[in-house]
# Entry
Amino acid sequence: MKPIIAGNWKMNGLAASVAEVEALIAKFAGSAPDDRDVLICPPATLVANLAAKFSDEAIQFGGQDCHANSSGAHTGDISAEMLADAGAGFVIVGHSERRADHGESDAVVRAKAEAVLRTGLTPIICVGETEAERKAGKALDIVGAQLKGSLPETVDNIVIAYEPVWAIGTGLVPTNDDIAEMHGFIRTKTRKDTRILYGGSVKPGNAVEILAIADVNGALVGGASLKAEDFYPIVMAAQGED
Ligand code: PEP
# Structure
């Protein structure tokens, strides 16, 4: 399975951030390796510019969220069609920061994932338990319920990202056994060829180990995707497709 290393820039990045993508491509000596998908999800303001500028470099670009509708009276929102028009190939939906900051339910996340599929793009659907839920021994139940509620009907072209909320931006990472248990569990709920990414404090120093765990088919990377010098070793840590 072709791994995906996806960078989530969150609300970071200005026009000058093009230099960071240039620096990443320079490290690849021209073009990203094609045995893995290299994806950057910048703020929506940058998608069109980056996608146009780097269309030949084997780096793909994606959105961080979208509205479920194609167009209409939804001030401040962006549709999957708009992201497709801007050159995106993927859209993250259901990130825990959106679930927490905007009260997004599983049903909302599912509607967004359906919208992404409708446009021919690939949704990266995020799930993950809080620290309290893990401590209470409920991690598998919580993630199972999120998958049940958030996955679209058609699961041919989806990516799932397991992101324990307590590991995002904290430097904390589950044990390899816990990651393996959760990814194995998610595998039982989806297709054999669905890529399941791990996200939560992936860094150059832990990427090789995490990406070697069974059923970890890539990573969703926040903070460490902002600098080419950190993101490059994470991209290269993935075992490319044979
Ligand atoms: C994320 O925001 O999806 C994420 C995994 O962040 P970080 O890598 O900074 O923990």
In short: The chain has ten helices and eight strands. Residues 8, 10, 163, 168-169, 199-202, 220-224 surround phosphoenolpyruvate (CB under 6 Å). The beta strands are 4-8, 37-41, 59-63, 90-93, 122-127, 159-162, 195-199, 218-221.
